[in-house]
Amino acid sequence: MIKNVLIAVVTLIVSVQAETYLFWQDAIKNNYALADSPGPNLQIPQDKIYEGLLHVDSYNYRDGDPDVSTFILMHFFKTYIVSFDLNRVRGTITSAKLRGEFLDLYYPDPGIAMNRSGDIQTMVSISKLVNEHDFCGSGYLSADYFACDSRQLSIHHDICSEFNKDTITFITFQGQTSDTSQPSPLWRKFAEIDITDQVQWILDNNDSMKTGAYQIILAGILNSGNGKMSLFGYGSCDSLIGDGANAPEHWTQDGNTMHIVVEGTLTPEPTTPISDSPKECIISFSLQNFPNPFNPITNIAYEMNENQKGLLTIYAINGKPVFYNLVEGKGVYSWNASRMASGVYFCRLVCNGKALTRKVVLFN
């Protein structure tokens, strides 16, 4: 089924309602001015903002070169979007928009415009996340994915089955041309892409990251149109800054603009211990910083079977994840909560679908 969809240049966003959620990596941590207009123009309370990793990877499948500095929608580009937090919640939504700031520059040599008016037929689908160690499955356990010591998660995307497919025709807009003396009509503007069906599918089918994560794929159909759209796609965990990210013409100063705005009702993953026995993977899990409450550092000791990897997540009392880290084997992780509010938190270790949870109290 073909849909005709206009990617509107966002100049004004209607004020969001109470049940509007934002998935934007490090948005609060980096003190982004989310209410700026022109800019994101978002009015969302902090308890509805998820700051976990949101990874964007654009891949040129005509010549095989990855280009992760930008989100590119073009007839020979395939772009992958995965949100850690989106794979940890459930719910029913009325809309979901993928948004990002236009990256609009003109390169005189060799004469490349980052945004070009036209149309692009695009296949929108879902697949399992992949990494260099696990083909289709628990790709979320990639060390690079969490430690941010690699510019890209993987380029081995095509080995996984894609499903929930739909074909959409996007209308794109003209950005800066060879007359660079004129300001771009797209500067400080944000684009929107409707991904409601795909986000709802993930909410209905994810298993809270126990066996992997799902990603959304936008793949331009080869020779289907001459349009082109470029958005700032760097996550803030990337060490490099995308082209033009610190230019005064753009809202962003670090290139981290991709985010998802969801309207509906979401339920975080439960923070209480699950009944499954952890003995198959987790040997012991304890907190060695006593007395508890702590201020501001606690040492979290864990022991899993040799060479086993686990995901250590810390949740606030409302169920919102505030920290996560990949751990392996036996060790101690020191969590510095100096930037967190006083209160009850839950430390949860997940390994091979088994979990243990412990309660800690921060007293500033």
TrEMBL record:
InterPro entries: Secre_tail. Residues 290-361 form the Secretion system C-terminal sorting domain. Pfam families: Por_Secre_tail (PF18962). This is Secretion system C-terminal sorting domain-containing protein.
